[in-house]
């Protein structure tokens, strides 16, 4: 069912931010060599290609559930706190004509506020689907297209995408949901496990992963 923007629980919502974190201590693991990784957002240290080990194991399971001819393509996993803050602040600054509170909430449609961001915990992954030769399937928008650029087509259940794109989004969900991941409904490419948003969606008493430092 299509969720209008007003129906989506945003990651800045108190129902999400109030959930406690009981840090599991799981290490960050390198995705490279285990799943396909796209270098478009690569950083010098390779932090982008890391996720909590439990998240990576679930993604490997999801990969096994895809039909022949389809693979997960990982675009970005872990994101340092400073990078997360910069992305949020830069996007928020483009949302003019709003009060500070309104711009904070509106920005969280597309970028998580740093204090609750699942990428900084290694708990979230931005990904898409590709063919065996690496060609990306039509998903309706590019990964990381914001609501303004895409006229809202970045929303997972958006009606203004092609039948092929809608089918590919459903195929992605059919692999990731059984593996235990949840989607952020404003971004078809963003899936997570163990963070506060996952806890809210699954009614878990606490999140498993909080912000973590990346070290080589």
TrEMBL record:
Its cofactor is Zn(2+). SUPFAM superfamilies: Hedgehog/DD-peptidase. Its EC number is 3.4.13.22. Zn(2+) binds at residues 119, 126, 190. It comes from the Bacteria. The active site is at residue 187. Gene3D superfamilies: 3.30.1380.10. GO terms for molecular function: D-Ala-D-Ala dipeptidase activity; metallopeptidase activity; zinc ion binding. The record marks 79 as: Transition state stabilizer. It catalyses: D-alanyl-D-alanine + H2O = 2 D-alanine. InterPro entries: A_A_dipeptidase, Zn_M74/Hedgehog-like. GO terms for biological process: cell wall organization; proteolysis. Binds 1 zinc ion per subunit. PANTHER family: D-ALANYL-D-ALANINE DIPEPTIDASE. Belongs to the peptidase M15D family. Catalyzes hydrolysis of the D-alanyl-D-alanine dipeptide. This is D-alanyl-D-alanine dipeptidase. The lineage of its organism: Bacteria, Bacillati, Actinomycetota, Actinomycetes, Streptosporangiales.
